[in-house]
Design a protein that fits this description.
Structural class: alpha+beta
Distance between the termini: 127 Å
Helix content: 25-40%
Number of strands: 10
Order of helices and strands: HHHHEEHEEEEEHHEEEH
Shape: elongated
C-alpha cells in the first residue's frame, strides 16, 4: 500500500529548496518511513497512529491539518456530511429540497471558477416531484467537494414501481481540454480523473469512477489488474418520477494518489509517474420491506385501481341513464299499440253497422231478418 503521508509530503515539497527536501528525507529515515507500507484495511480506512504526524504536531503545532489518527475516511467515521439548509417549496414548489446553504456557505472556495464552486441541486436524498426525462438530477457531494449532475438514461421498473434511471455523463470527471466547463477543477492530468487536492490537505489525490471507467485508457493500462466495466463500475440512481424519491441507487467512486520520483527525496527515487488507485467504494441503497410495500400500495396500486374505477363508474352511470330512456321508449310503444288497436276496432264496428243498414234497405217490407250470432 502506498504510504500516503510520505508520498503526499514528497509531492508537496517538489518545488521547495533542496536543503528542505534533504531534511525531510532525513526525517523519513529517522522515523523508518518508506514509500510503501503494510497496513490492515481497517487502519487504512479509519485511521492509525503515525509517528510523522505526532512529530509534526509536537514541534510544529498548527501546521498539519490532522491532529489524531490518519486514515482515508477517519474524519467521516461516525460523522455526518455537514449541515444542509434546504428549501421547503412553500413559496416556490419547483425549488423543494434544493440546497440553499451547506455549513452556512452558499458556495465553496475549493475551485478556480464560480461555476465549479456553486452548490447546486439537493443533498442527494430527494428531488422535486413530477419529474420528466428532461428534469435535471443534481446534488452536492461533500465527499467530492462539488456538485454533480446526472443525466436521464431510461425508464424502468423496480419491484413493480416505475422509475427513471439517471447515470453519470461521460464528462463528469473529464478534464478541461475535453470538457471546458470542468476547467475550474484543474490543474488536471488525463481526462476522467478529478484533482481533489484542494479539499484534501493539498495531497495529490484524484477522484474517478472505479478502475478508471470513462477515463483515458492510459490510466488503466498503467496499473495491473484494472478492467473498467460499465456494469461493474458505473454510477446510477433510480428515481420514482412522481415523488422524486430514490428507489435504488449505486454510487461508486475511486480515490487515487498521484506518485512520482521527487528529486532530493530518496524514498521516492525509484517511483515512475503513475496515478495509483488507493481504494474504491460503493454507497448502495434500495427501498425494501414494509416501506416498499406501503409505497407500492399507496402510490402505485391504489392509483391504478382508481384509474380503472373511474371507467367502471362512468359505465355504471351511463347504464343508469340508459335505463329510464329505454323504459320511456317502451312505454310510448305500448301506448301506440293500444291506440292502433282501438282505432281499428272502431272502423270494424262502423263497417258492420253500414252493412246492416244496407241489408235493411234492400229487404222488402214485411221481411223478417234473423239475427245471426257468431
Amino acid at each position: 500500500m502506498p504510504n500516503i503521508l510520505v508520498l503526499s509530503a514528497a509531492m508537496m515539497m517538489e518545488r521547495k529548496p533542496m536543503p528542505l527536501k534533504m531534511l525531510l528525507t532525513f526525517a523519513f529515515s529517522s522515523l523508518r518511513q518508506r514509500a510503501f507500507m503494510n497496513r490492515t484495511v481497517g487502519e487504512i480506512l479509519w485511521g492509525y497512529d503515525d509517528p510523522l504526524i505526532s512529530l509534526v504536531n509536537k514541534y510544529l503545532p498548527g501546521t498539519f491539518p490532522i491532529k489524531g489518527k490518519f486514515g482515508l475516511f477517519a474524519e467521516l467515521n461516525n460523522s455526518n456530511s455537514g449541515l444542509f439548509t434546504v428549501y421547503t417549496g412553500i413559496k416556490n414548489f419547483s425549488r423543494v429540497h434544493l440546497v440553499d446553504r451547506w455549513n452556512g456557505l452558499s458556495k465553496v472556495n475549493y475551485w478556480h471558477s464560480d461555476q465549479c464552486n456553486m452548490i447546486n441541486g439537493t443533498s442527494g436524498q430527494m428531488w422535486a416531484p413530477f419529474m420528466t426525462p428532461e428534469s435535471p438530477l443534481e446534488f452536492y457531494s461533500p465527499e467530492a467537494c462539488r456538485s454533480m449532475k446526472l443525466i436521464y438514461e431510461e425508464a424502468g421498473v423496480f419491484e413493480g414501481i416505475p422509475t427513471f434511471r439517471f447515470k453519470a455523463p461521460n464528462t463528469l470527471f473529464a478534464n478541461g481540454s475535453v470538457y471546458p466547463p470542468n476547467e475550474g477543477f484543474c490543474p488536471c492530468l488525463e481526462s476522467g480523473i478529478q484533482n481533489v487536492s484542494t479539499c484534501r490537505f493539498n495531497a495529490p489525490l484524484f477522484l474517478s469512477h472505479p478502475h478508471f471507467y470513462n477515463a483515458d485508457p492510459a490510466l488503466a493500462e498503467a496499473v495491473l489488474g484494472l478492467h473498467p466495466s460499465e456494469k461493474e463500475h458505473s454510477l446510477f440512481l433510480d428515481i420514482h418520477p412522481v415523488t422524486g424519491i430514490p428507489m435504488n441507487c449505486s454510487v461508486k467512486l475511486q480515490l487515487s494518489l498521484y506518485i512520482k520520483a521527487v528529486q532530493g527525496i530518496g524514498q521516492t527515487r525509484k517511483i515512475a509517474p503513475v496515478v495509483m488507485p488507493l481504494v474504491w467504494f460503493e454507497e448502495r441503497g434500495a427501498m425494501e420491506g414494509e416501506p416498499l410495500q406501503k409505497f407500492y400500495l399507496q402510490l402505485v396500486l391504489l392509483p391504478k385501481v382508481l384509474h380503472f374505477a373511474q371507467y367502471v363508474l362512468l359505465a355504471l352511470g351511463g347504464l343508469l341513464l340508459l335505463v329510464p330512456v329505454v323504459y320511456q321508449i317502451r312505454s310510448q310503444e305500448r301506448c301506440y299499440l293500444f291506440w292502433s288497436r282501438d282505432k281499428k276496432g272502431s272502423r270494424d264496428k262502423e263497417a258492420m253497422q253500414a252493412y246492416s243498414e244496407s241489408l235493411m234497405a234492400a229487404a222488402p217490407k214485411g221481411t223478417v231478418l234473423q239475427e245471426a250470432r257468431l
